[in-house]
Amino acid sequence: GYWHWHSIHNSAETYWKGLLSHDFQPNPTYAEAQTIGKDFARLSPQLVNLKKTNQVAILFSNEAQTAFNNFRFGWDSRETYNDVLRPLYDALYRMNVGVDMVDPSSPLENYKLLVVPALYAAPDSLLHRLNRFVRNGGHIVYTVKSGFADQYAKVRTTVQPGIISEALGISYSQFTLPHQVTLKGDPYKVGPQKNGVKTWMELITPTTANVLAYYDHPVWGNYAAVTQNRFGQGLATYIGCLTDDAVTEKILMDAVKKAQLWGNAQTLHFPVITKHGVNEAGKTIRYVLNYSAVPTTITYPFGTGTDLLKGQSVTKNSTLALGPWDVKIIAEN
């Protein structure tokens, strides 16, 4: 969208530019908006009221956010709740995994995979509900600081991570700030520059969980950093430290695959982003976007359809050229 019809001439928003500049004359921005308006008029009947059903969700909690942000990772820490949540969303976005944002009042049972960042403060009832979700076949990825305190931010007196230990198959009582700590053996094959542990690490002992990554450290090398546990019909993963974005993406890739949600969209990766929905006529509409100044080509992995902007046919497994910052809107047949 555009902030104003024309750029205003005084006050704090003088340089919050509009469609027209301060001289009110047509310009390239105005010309581009004309083409967009014509596309809206022509294509809107096929594009409005799209519906889609995601099978992955990130569980956010205002209670957890408020409690976490009061303590963070220590008094000198600048990281907030969103600094834990956002890298998880970004990793899923780069892999073209559609995600809903849900809170504890949402119908969580509709999803196959939940990603739960820093659920620091939560009532017993929510944690038992999440255990049931896994037992009944769901998959959850938890991060550090989950299950730690109740809804009043009172730390639980049980072995951490409290109630969710049952589904996670782990325990810990100590945590520390990492210094020159990495993951032993580079388990996610990201290279030495991206294999580091940062900000916070929990010294995890598995009870029934499999260890996906250990710390590489002369004192803490026997403790787990990332674990995964089969519980009932589902799977629970725990990330006990903050990792580089490349490691975070590999952990979530594994979770998506094991939830059997890895599909055609995941053959594409950022900067090529794809979104889709079903329109009122029951047709699947797919957007393919190149978020890059560099042109690229892809093998189009979806069903045959029509490029609505150019009126050209696009067939499954054909080569699709994307210019810099390009977008294709394809209606499947």
What does the model show?
With 333 residues, the protein is α+β, with helices and mostly antiparallel strands. It folds into two domains: 56-260, 3-Layer(aba) Sandwich (Rossmann fold); 266-332, Golgi alpha-mannosidase II (Immunoglobulin-like). Helices cover 22% and strands 26% of the residues. It has six helices and 20 strands. It has helices at residues 28-47, 62-71, 81-94, 124-135, 165-168, 245-258, and strands spanning 56-59, 100-102, 113-116, 139-143, 170-171, 175-176, 182-183, 197-202, 205-206, 210-216, 224-231, 234-239, 241-243, 272-278, 284-290, 296-299, 305-307, 312-314, 319-322, 327-332. The strands form five sheets. The chain has an eight-stranded mixed β-sheet, sandwiched between helices. Strands 14-15-20-17-18 form a five-stranded antiparallel β-sheet, with no helix packed on it. A three-stranded antiparallel β-sheet has the order 6-8-13. A hairpin with a 4-residue loop joins strand 17 (305-307) and strand 18 (312-314). The protein is globular.
